[in-house]
Structure formats: C-alpha cells, structure tokens
Amino acid sequence: MIQEKYNIIGVMSGTSLDGIDIAHLNFEIINGKWNFQILESETIGYSQEWIDQLKIAVGFSESELLYLNKKYTLLLGNTISEFISKYHLKSVDAVCSHGHTILHQPKNGFTLQIGNLPEIATICNQKVICDFRVQDIELGGQGAPLVPIGDQQLFSEADYCLNLGGFSNVSFEENGTRIAFDISPVNTVLNFYANKLGLEYDDKGTISSSGKINSDLLKELNALEFYKLSYPKSLGFEFVKEIVLPIIESHEISIEDKLATFTEHIAIQIGLALPSKKGKLLITGGGVYNNFLLGRIQYYLKETSFIIPEKKIIEFKEALIFGLLGVLKLRNEINTLSSVTGASKDHSAGKIYNPY
C-alpha cells in the first residue's frame, strides 16, 4: 500500500552559489491534495575554495569533471549526514537531492548535475533520489525547469510562480496546461559584479540603484536571440559566460551602471514573459531580498499583485519541490511535465540509490 505521509529531506544547490539548501520536510495527502511542512532548514555556505571551483567548472575537461563530481558527491553526502545528526532526524523515507548544475546543454542532449553519484546513499546512509534532469533530456526535453509540477500541486493559489535565483523562471496554467520556462539570468550576473566590488551580493540592490541605465547596453541585451524563442526553453551558466558577460564587458561603463542596466533588463524580460499583466504573482528565491529589483519588476507589472511568502518558502522552495519530486518518484507517479520541458511524454524522473 502506498504511503499517505512522507518524512523527507530536500537538497538543492543553485547557480547563484549561495550554498547547499537542506530542508527537513513532511508531506501528506489530505483530500487528494498535497500538504507540506518545512521543518528544520539550513543553507550551508560553500568554502571559498569550493566557490572558486564551481565558478570555473564549466570549462573543465572530462577527467577534471569526473574528479570534481566524486569530490562534490562526498561533500554533499557528508553535509546531509551532518544535518541529519545535528537535528536528530529519524525514520527518513528518502533524501531528494538536485545536486549542482555544471553543464546544461539540452540542444546537445546533455546536462550534468554533480553530486548525484550512487555512493552518496552510502555516505549519508539513506535512500537517495537524485539526478532528476537526465531522463528528460533523453526523452528530447530541456531537462528544465522541473519545479513547475510543485508550483501546480503546492501553490495553486497563485496565478504565476516566479523564482529569482541564479536565473529567473516562471510557471503558470494556460488552457489547462502547465507552462514554464527560464526567463533570464539574475543573480549569476548581479553577484558577478558585486563580487568585483569585494561583496558577496548587492544588498537590497543598493549599488544597482545608484547606477545609471546605459541605453545601448540595455538594447543589446534585450535583443538577444534567446528572448525571441518560444517555450519550452531553459538556460545554463554557459549562456552567461559565453554570451551575456562578454556583451556587458564590451561597454566601458562603471560597475554601478552595469548593475543598474542589468537589473532593468531582468525586470523588462519578466514583464514581457507574463501573458497577462494581472493576477497574483508568487515570488521566491534570493532575488526577493533585492528591493530595487522588485521595484523595477513592479514598474512593468503595475496591475499584478505580488505575494511574498514566509522566509522558509522564499529560501527553501526549490529544496521543498525537489523533495516532492522524490516523493512522486517513490510513488511511481508523474513528476516531470512534457508541457514544460518539451519531452516526448510526461514521466517519473530521478534515480533511486540505496546505501550498500
């Protein structure tokens, strides 16, 4: 008999390199609807050595990536194990882990999330469900975004669900079908320039708000081919490294002006991405704390009501939803929507590893 309640650990590491998000989660079906609780939760920051490695790994050779994957799987497994021990967690049904994306090239039929090697289950001594993206790529999909089924099942009160992380992405219902896609880079670019000023990030968007918009740069960014593509579509750090940063760097303007211009670009693209400018917009991810960015998005969505949820949902929504994806995989139920990824069919993605 299939369980109605699940005791889960959700794990996520995003491209903004904030750290490893770990959340202890309870899921329960009540009257056919999933209910959840986010219990103990933490973001475990990366050491500077790991940040430096993950930033440049997109350019690694195959052998370097293999070694990095082994090292990161050990780091992730030990971090999960320490979290379980710290909070004295018992009877965990599964650890559901996204890993960390290094390469994402759906056009070439390839995506790589490190930290998903089978030995992770033995390292943390738990059943682990991970590597959620590969199967979708094999079925001709983008392998992303995967969060929309969680938006649909856990946050149906919102007309739109927007995440502001390393990249922005949105999901919504259109003619009875869930639609979702990546919109543009966000913190991958904003943090890059904050780092150049010796800061981890631009707190509340204060530096961005002090800059001036460069109209030529803004026009060039808004003209990028990606924004003309119809969904499904997704982005990886390759897009930032190979296309976006070279464009920004070609303009000899101050970092403040680069941040102001790119913030405006983010807001414009989000405004264009929503088919209707009315309704309720749930916003999560680290970008929620960027007051300047939110103000610029609101400027382009004047008739849209913003929903800013509680802190745990803002910071751990992706860990929460990968927890749900793992639960659905355990139940052999659909956890990946072809309407979102462009795969040949809906399917139940992820690999299940048991400790040796």
- Succession of helices and strands: EEEHHEEHEHHEEEHHHHHEHEHHE
Structural class assignment = alpha/beta
Strand tally, please? Answer: 12
Gap between N and C termini:
25 Å
- How would you characterize the largest beta sheet? 7 strands, mixed
Residue share in β-strands? 15-25%
Radius of gyration equals 20 Å
Roughly what is the average pLDDT, rounded to an integer? 96
> How many helices does DSSP assign?
13
**Unreliable segments of 5+ consecutive residues:** none
Looking at the structure, what is the overall shape? globular
Percent of residues in helices comes to 25-40%
Task: Give a description of the structure.
Helix 8 (215-222) runs parallel beside helix 10. The mean pLDDT is 96. This protein starts with a strand and ends with a strand. The protein is an alpha/beta fold. The chain is globular, with a radius of gyration of 20 Å. The strands form two sheets. Strands 1, 2, 3, 4, 5, 6 and 12 form a seven-stranded mixed β-sheet that branches. It is built from 13 helices and twelve strands.
